[in-house]
Amino acid sequence: MELNYFKDLIFDLLNDSDELNIFDISTDDRRNIFTISTTDGNVFQIEFRQILARYL
Fold it and tell me: How many Å apart are CA 4 and CA 35, to the nearest integer?
């Protein structure tokens, strides 16, 4: 799965959720960061990084 596809899935999941009380989602695609504001005034950031899987 590519990083941009994964970010799109997470954005849709957050955006479609009524239970999370999200007021706004700002995206910075260049830095791979979502900034999420909730209706109660809290702000959260999610940073996405793709790492290589190591097999044992």
Answer: 16
Using one digit for the tens of pLDDT, what is the confidence trace for 1-41? Answer: 899 999 999 999 999 998 999 999 999 999 999 999 999 99
Determine whether 11 is exposed, middle or buried from the number of CB atoms within 10 Å of its CB (0-12, 13-18, 19+). Answer: middle
Q: Give Dmax over CA atoms of the chain in angstroms.
A: 44
Identify the H or E element spanning 3: helix 3-16
pTM of the complete model beyond 0.90 = no
C-alpha–C-alpha distance, residues 29 and 15, integer Å: 16
Structure tokens at 46: 């999610």
DSSP string, 19-37: TTTEEEEEEETTTTEEEEE
